[in-house]
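## tool: complex_structure
## caller: assistant
## args:
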Amino acid sequence: MTEFVLPPIDYAALAPILIMMGAAVLGVLVEAFVPRRLRHPIQLPLALLALLAALTMVVLNADKRVITIGVIAIDGPTLFLQGAILVLAAMALLLVGERAIERGGAFVAQAAITADSPDDRRQAEKAGGAGEVYPLLTFAVGGMLIFVSANDLLTMFIALEVFSLPLYLLCALARRRRLLSQEAAMKYFLLGAYASAFFLFGLAMIYGFTAGLGDRAAGVDFATIHAAVANSTASPVLLFAGMALVAIGLLFKAAAAPFHVWTPDVYQGAPTPVTGFMAACTKVAAFGALLRVFHVAFEGARWDFTPVLGAVAVLTMLVGAVFAVTQTDIKRLLAYSSIANAGYLLVGVLAPGRDGLSGTMFYLVAYGFTVLAAFAVVTLVRDADGEATHLSRWAGLGRRSPLYASVFTFILLAFAGIPLTSGFTSKFAVFAPALDGGQTWLVIAGVLTSMVLAFPYLRVVVMMWLSEPGESTPTVTVPGGLTSAALVIGVIATLALGVAPGPLLDLATGAADFVR
Amino acid sequence: MDEILTYAQAAPAETVVYATADGLLSSVWLLVAIPLVSAAVLLLLGKRADRWGHWLGVASIGAAFLLGLASFFSLRGLENKSVELSLWDFIAVGGLHVDFGLLFDPLAGVFVLLITGVGSLIHLYAVEYMAHDPGRRRFFAYFNLFVAAMLLLVLGNNYVMLYFGWEGVGLASYLLISFWTDRPSAATAGKKAFLMNRVGDAGLAIAIFIMFATLGTTQYDEVFSNVGALAGGTVLVLGLLLLLGATGKSGQFPLHAWLPDAMEGPTPVSALIHAATMVTAGVYLIARSNVIFSANHTLQLVVVSVGALTLLIGAIIGCAKDDIKRVLAWSTVSQIGYMFLGVGLGGAAYALAIVHLLAHGFFKANMFLGAGSVMHGMNDQVDIRRFGGLSKYMKITWLTFGAGWLAIIGMYPFSGFWSKEPIVVAAFAREGWSAWLFGGAALLGAGLTAFYMTRLFILTFHGPKRWTEDIEHPHESPPLMTIPLILLAVGSLGAGWLLATSVPEWLTGTGGLEAAEEHHQGALGHAAITTLALGITVLGAALAWYVFRNGTATAPQPAGVVVTAARKNLYTDTVNEAVFEKPGIFLTRALVYLDNRGIDGLVNGLAAGVGGGSGRLRRLQTGFVRSYATSILTGALLVVAAFLAVQAGWLA
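## result:
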């Protein structure tokens, strides 16, 4: 019997993940043992500190290029994406922790109380929010950090579950419109489990395919898959079916058509800070994994997967843009916009070489900032029943509160890709390498759908500024410090990345090298 | 004839070098900055500056004049007499480097003195003239803006700076022509000026592009030093485009129609911008670019022809107009024609044209302000048929206007004689038939000038009263208006001799203008031409006196073909309308039709398609998990099938 040897562990490289997981466990203990009154004042700083500490470790690791214990790859893209997730999660956390806009914050106190019962109405009015959101969010961030650094499909799958499960729960915790929120969580959970099954099935097929390698053992780590793509004797049907199924699992999380169907319902139903968190961080994590899988493991099959994923990208852009045109709810509109953006990101994933990689990473960061700022504004436009998300309610907002209408206009122009905003530079960053790589058809589709997509954005702008405010136009709540901070960070980042994208692009280009 | 039309290269230009400015001259940028800051203050402070704003406007131009005078005299001591001051790198894109730099040389110097000197007098006059206008502060803001832009135009050390100032004066001119925005005629005149100037500006812009494309620079010194190396055709095109710009700004044929209409603006505007300074920018441009124009004989012939044609057009139309300001405006067109004639003749005549420009600045500003004074006393009446006998009521205006009248018709020893007669002589100094053609045109123009100006003078100040009934006692204007008139009249009297004797020598310091070659014997002797010119002038004036000594009818009378044509601006407006306006309107209508029916139809159709599609497809989003799962499964099957198809080579 061979002696069991512990693999060497690079704790510094794992530190961000360990910090987040540790903070999450601490958070659970706080929920269990600290008096209710003190939970929020302890949980919020704890989570923020954990994010900052993890970010510091990511920065300290900046030059690390290792694969530790065989399953976690710490390299340029990992560190860049981990940093992006941590920064965006900190912004989302500011929105989550906001208690000034609504008594007790956006989250329900007792999720188990039957929705719309007298008890529920009482708690909606009086009770403070659940403190569980902080450990749940911290767990999700920890899972995402593993997800983008996973060096084999099995670790990736586990990380997928680790960050998905807290998300399902978070979706169900809205203080207002609880039925909608619970329905969203249920749908997300069912469809997420369904998509996970595809991923797992694909994983098994890939494992079978790597068994065809004569000289090394079968496995699902990316180096083995990479070798198998080049010279496995097993049937290529295994490879292609497996690649397709793994891709489907990831594309589901990335909200690409036709696996996007959950997105509008979930984005609408989830508490708005959580929606922002999903739109920014989940997108980074999902595309981080897609980049790694397709740039590292399946790179040898580039010419085979590009047309299929390209078709998915075009379909995603089309669905996002066309459906956005007739949306009447601001959160659903932003959901379809997020779907269309997934299409543009796929163009970057399919652009070969470093430029495609760095452009995609730049896009993820730029889009994350903008979309979080957008949802921050959504949390502010409200009436007595909570957020007023129906678009007709936004008519004439420019008269009532010109400042927030201007900010939202700027954000929408950024989404539409107007120059001097990050929306323009990031689209340029993914389209240019795609054009250089010969994927002209994707760029044409991207530009055409951008034009279609500009319409719903501008419709909102026109509605806010050129319509007379009606009786039902809600007021804009003056935000508390946390939301203001998130909003200011998002808007400044959107402007700065639009005017001077150089530093971040250089950083992304410098990080655009995977370890194998 | 043949020699003229070949693209003959004149002798290659000498290298042009400018010294760097130091001492007092390093503050020439203040010349532009002072009026600009004043304009900004007046515009930004708004109503708070209403009480004292006009004095700030006058003071800023006065300060600029004193600074200009000091700079002018410190220039005299220098050997090179041309100093450059580079402020900062204005545009640096690829191979294009444009300096934000100023050039103070003799040519710029005399322009600075004219602009700030005459400008400060007119500013002073306007304090009183605009006293009852609620927009007086705004008026002075625009006026200062104009002076700043005009100074930038003449002080820039490259063509882009010149263009910057060129557009600036165009803007100020537009704002001031339409100053009384509640008058439709003022708004229309502003638009007309703006549009016709755009045509010329486009020419200037393309000329600058050509300079950059062929020479790689727009700096004066580098352009002038290297223009000799260009192909003859390029120089010709370059020069013609510069000329197009010059004709637009200076109201020369074929872009002259806006200038008379520009008289809708307040009278001080007409005096400063549309008589003394801005409209001479075209002459400045050609004089500054003399190296380019001297490099090609065909180009010079075109300039001379434009000048001669315009001076005749202006003079003929001037004879038939009854509006005092329009007559003066057409006379401006005609006099600038003389200047173009001068700069087109080349060589020493450049300096003569500049001398005429300066003299004209004085006497024309004088007469415009005099006309303003008359209007001030006559309830804003502008029709000379309703004046008469004003010499008894407005003594100062009468005497000063008289000085201007004698100056413009070129009577000895007034300034017009000293500045115009040498141009006539220079025109006769050409070779062959063209001497008779252009010399004859200049002489004929002198006679016509004498006729229409005498007509204007007699009908306004002499003969029987033909006033409208609401006027009983026309009054002389207050001192703030008459003092500038007296100072300008002194200038009209004496300055000509001073200018004619000293300026040409002074201007030889300007790059390229030193070619003061010896006059060879022209078609007629110098003395003969002088006698002839004076004789024709006296004849014209006497004829006008004889015809109009007893006044004239107060309503238009039926007239012959020539007078009718002149009344209708020699049909140039009609031609513009038929050739440009009508087809333009038709083209616009056609494009609007195409846009509405074709392009909008397509776009709206597409939009409707997308919207309809979106509305129909939305129904697929049912909200049921089962249908979502089905669509995911369908998608998954399709993706797997597609991958397998790729693997099987079906999609290759």
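## assistant note: Chain B has two domains: 16-567, 575-648. The mean pLDDT of chain B is 84. Handing back to user.
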